[in-house]
Structure formats: structure tokens, C-alpha cells
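As a warm-up, study this chain.
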Amino acid sequence: MAGPLFGKVLIANRGEIALRVQRACRELGIGTVAVHSTADSEAMHVRLADESVCVGPPAARDSYLNMAAILTAASVTGADAIHPGYGFLSENAAFAEMVEAHGLTFIGPSSDHIRMMGDKITARTAMAGLGVPLVPGSPGALPDLEAARAIAAQIGYPVLIKATAGGGGRGMKVAHGEDGLEEAWRVARTEARAAFGNDEVYLEKYLDRPRHIELQVMADTHGHVVHFGERDCSLQRRHQKLLEEAGSPVLTPAERDAIGATATAALARLGYRNAGTLEFLYQDGQFAFIEMNTRLQVEHPVTEMVCDVDLVREQIRIAAGQELGYTQADIAFSGHAIECRVNAEDPETFSPTPGRVTAFHAPGGLGVRVDSALYAGYVVPPYYDSLVAKLIVHAPTRPEAIARLRRALDEFAVLGIKTTLPLHQRIIEQPEFQAGDYTIHWLEQFVERAFPKQ
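Now compare it with the structure written out below.
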């Protein structure tokens, strides 16, 4: 029997993702509570929420990461559940536990699964035991440099030293030969300690021309697990995604079905619940699991466009105890979707560009979607991630989607600050992009060619 939905949801986030969750709640008849820092008092997610609570000063650690303040806000407003969005506390197992301990529902996976997948070693171990293919590497954290040398010699160079905690490309260094292993080991551990307070690292084979393919999954509390196909997230700079596609230009439906069946079977055995994304490297027709994100992804809209599904709505329904109500066979994939992340950054130097938006015009028309919290007069603060908008297009075919994206980028206007819109205009004109012939290393090489003075 379907459980009742919530009366009120507190959204523990800001910007476009807070608006995205608000929209899903509004369509479900659920009240919303926005939390905000003093720097975000005029933000759009605050203006449009049913209620809002200031949870601290501008620094994220004192506001959006302030678990006590957020739980207090939920208590005083009478919220039934908390949606964490992405980033901030979305993959914090302790926060998920605290939410449940306070009698509220955490709209996401269990704290046990967040904790398991938050450490890349335990994630790899769990997935290997469930039959999911891995990149060759060390079975666990490396105890010392000599262990790294032994495993690297066994699997062959180049190798990648990676932090067991965190993400975003921090604590990751490539060693192309034995003479570079010691420096990669030292730098990766130093970065990991500074970024995550944990200097444990492990080792993987470094693939020279992989695609970054991720699979969107959803699981209810009744044992049902489905996937909504793949996203190609190979266009990255310094391990940060800039443009994503659904589906991948290089994957066949048979390959999608095969990796989807493997992933959903594994998560069913694990007893996973709510939304999740399994990330793979794909090269020479082979998939290799690298990590799992136990949350909604920034790039979820491209999946929504090709599957005609509201993933946030599904998260809320599942958290309320409802069944999926459909099977894998009911999920259809239609057309092609592309997302451009629009950052408040200089398009050549990538330096952050906070400041006042003097004019804002979003493109429109058939198959065009813009997720953004910008408006004319809004001041982009310097304290948070630089993402300010996402432009998503959908069309029957990839060439038509590229043509629609070109048109939409030409219409998009953000004045007063520099953004990465001009960079996207250059990327989509490159022959390699138009042919779908790129790897996770392509964008870095393109930027070096296009802006040699960096």
C-alpha cells in the first residue's frame, strides 16, 4: 500500500538544486522550507519557498554544513523530511543518521550505504563481491610506498594514485613510470589530507582513452530496482564535468542493457534505496566501476529528458514508502539530451567571477530547459560553487540536439559577470565533439590548445 507523502520538506541546499526540489514538492502538494546563509537572503530559492530560515553566516561550514542549525530549522518549522540536494550534506552519513534520529525522513539512501560508498575502497570491495567489474588495482588502501611499487609493477604503468575519501579530482595523481610513483604517492596523500582529513590512498590502472559513463538507478523500499540509462560525462576539466549527454554517443542499446542489468541486480542484493549513480570508465567495450554517488547528480536533467521522468519526485515518493509502480520494461528512452554547466568563471582562465548580474535572459523554445536561480540584480556570492545555471536541450537525434544547443547558447544572455557560455559555444563546434569522438582527456587538451597562455 502506498504511504502518505510528506506535509513539509526542508531543502538543505541552495541555488538551482534547491529550486529544482521546490518545484517537485510544489507539484506534489508538499510545503517547502528553504534554509539560507546571510549571503543568500535575497536568493531565489528563499524567495519562492513557503518558509525560510537563516542558518548562519556566509561560510558554508557555518551555514549549509551546520547540521545542528539545519535540524533546528526543521524542528521549528515542523518539517517531516529533509532533501539534501547534491553537495554539502548530501553524502554525509552522520547527517542522515541525525535526521532519522530526530524523527524526520532523510530523502536519500540509508546512512549505511552512504558510508559504504563514501569510501572508495569499501565501495570497490562491495561492488566486486556483487559481480560489478572493476578497474585493476590495489585490493585496499596502500600501507606504504613499497606496496604501491609492487602492485604497479604487477598491473603495469601508467597508474593512478587516488584518495580513498572525497572526490572532485582532489587527491588523484598519475604516475607514468616507476620514477614518478614516489612523487604521485606523496602529492596525492598531501592533497587528500588537506581536503578530506584522511591521507589514505589506493592505486588503479590508469586508462589512457576511457569514456566516463554513469548509470542512473532508483530503488524503492520494496526490493524493486530500475535504471534510467546512461549519461556520458567524459567532457571534464581537472576532473570537473562541464558537459554531459544522455545517452552516450558510443554505447549501444545492448551494452546499456547489459551494464544496467548487472548494476540493478547488484543494488537489489545490497538492499539499496532511493537514487544513486554508478560511475564507470569505459574503454574498448569494457566497463570498470570507479565509484558510486549516493545522491542526485548535477546532470540528472538529461536523464529526465530522455526518459520523461521526474527523478526528484521519485526520490520523494520512495522516501515516503511508496513503490516504484513500474518495471524496467516500462522505461523507454527517447531522443538525445545534452547539458551544459554554466559557471560564473572566466571562460579562458576559469577564475571565479562573482558579482552582480545586470541582465539575464534564458533561452526557450521546444526542447530547451534552463535550471537556474539567477535573476537580474542578483549578486553571485564568492563563497560557494561557481555553477549558476544548467542549459539542457532535447531532440530526436544527437545532430538535432547539437543544432538546438547551438541556437540556445546564442540566445542565452548573462550580463555583469563572465560565464563559461562562450567556452561551450567553442566546444560544440569542434569536429571531435560533433562526431562524439572524445575521451575524458579531450577537453583538457582542447583547453590547452585554445588558451595556451594559461
